[in-house]
Amino acid sequence: MSFQNILQPLIKDVDGAIGIIFVDADGEAIDHYSRIPEHDMKLLGAYKSIIIKNIQETSNRLELGSIREIVIFLDEAVLILSPVSEGYFLLLFMQPQSNLGKGIIRLKETIKKVREEL
Q1: Which residue has the higher pLDDT, 26 or 13?
Q2: Architecture of domain 4-117
Q3: Would the CA dihedral through 28, 31, 33, 35 be positive or negative?
Q4: Which residue among 72, 73, 100, 108 is buried most deeply as judged by most CB within 10 Å?
Q5: Per DSSP, which regions of 1-118 are E strands?
């Protein structure tokens, strides 16, 4: 199943959005759309599972609940991780000067559309 028609509009609509990847719990890419090489986008998706695992384990230990969103600010990028359903996440990769609010809003809309297709 292809999710291109759902993922692509977000990247085209948000200035500075570089790519989005739909991944499973193991970090395996289900689908993606990006302005960077496929290998680089898949690498970001694979490493997200390490980040999520560590944060969720800590959250469980402290009884803080489930992950709703993770935003990571880097010198040259912003990464937003959001759960789609149990074991599935979307990762949005943006330039640091991008409109973070618009990126999050469009990501939430995209998550709803992906859920409808699952």
Answers
A1: 13
A2: 2-Layer Sandwich (3.30)
A3: positive
A4: 100
A5: 17-24, 29-34, 70-73, 78-85, 88-94
